[in-house]
Specification:
GATASE; single chain; ChyE-like; alpha/beta; Rossmann fold; nine-stranded mixed beta sheet; Glutamine amidotransferase domain-containing protein; globular; 8 helices
């Protein structure tokens, strides 16, 4: 493993959508610049970054007419792709990445909310980031796992992308396009973060309408029950991506070295 640190632009779409379980590997392995895109200017120069991590949010690509920064982010991700900068997109981030790759993003026929099982396909189990082989330093990825879902939109598989995982409700759960990954599910979220999301009266009302009062009340505890798998899994896949894809392929000029 290289000892160089990735320079990451982390895009947040709301204060309530932090990196969660992705946070520790980002802190350990990267120098992170946070862009709170709803209130800060979108950078035009990405040459100082080795990767982009774009997180979740309650809005959707279809809201671009009332939320101008959505189009700005699609343009930013296209610039990153043109520069060969890898992108890790989470939920909304995966949908915005799909749009940047000229896929269609639309309202799903069935919302996917709660704890759902995601299963890797053959391409997923052999993927360099999501592959299920044991790793001495990066950990192991299960071929099937339960994870938090909270989305009402989905997307077509972007042209040139490889599908890596699906669920019974939503086919396009995880895809790879070159060095970039779109992750529809919330691997970063556990019981505490789901509880915080449900503290919003608007969010609780929406989720209650979708899955019912009992399932909504149980949602944080159900999310907490996934943590023994999702916490190490989030670290494993992001570590593999940052060290095996991002840093391995990025130019070394201007990098900082970790403190011994």
């Amino acid at each position: 493993m290289t000892d160089q640190r990735a320079r990451v632009l982390e895009i947040r779409h709301a204060d309530s959508e932090p990196p969660g379980f992705y946070g520790p590997p980002l802190i350990d392995l990267a120098d992170v610049t946070i862009l709170r895109i709803w209130r800060e200017p979108v950078p035009t120069d990405l040459t100082g970054f080795d990767a982009v991590v774009t997180l979740g949010g309650a809005m959707g690509v279809g809201d671009a007419q009332r939320i101008p920064w959505i189009a700005d982010e699609i343009a930013l991700l296209r610039r990153a792709l043109d520069l060969g900068i890898p992108i890790w997109g989470v939920c909304l981030g995966a949908q915005i990445l799909a749009a940047a790759l000229n896929a269609d993003v639309y309202t799903a026929s069935s919302p996917e909310v709660g704890i759902h099982t995601v299963t890797l396909n053959d391409a997923g189990t052999t993927d360099p980031v999501w592959g299920t082989a044991d790793g001495e330093t990066s950990g192991t990825v299960p071929s099937e796992f339960d994870v938090v879902q909270w989305h009402f939109d989905t997307f077509t598989l972007p042209p040139g992308a490889t599908l890596l995982a699906s669920s019974s409700t939503c086919v396009n759960q995880l895809y790879r396009h070159g060095k970039s990954y779109g992750v529809q599910f919330h691997l970063e979220a556990g019981g505490e973060l789901v509880g915080e999301w449900l503290d919003s009266t608007e969010s609780r009302s929406l989720i209650t309408e979708t899955i019912g009062v009992e399932a909504t009340d149980r949602f944080p505890a159900d999310a907490a029950a996934t943590e023994p798998v999702t916490i190490p899994l989030a670290r494993t896949v992001l570590t593999r991506w940052l060290t095996g894809v991002v840093v391995a392929d990025a130019p070394s000029a201007g990098r900082t070295q970790p403190t011994p």
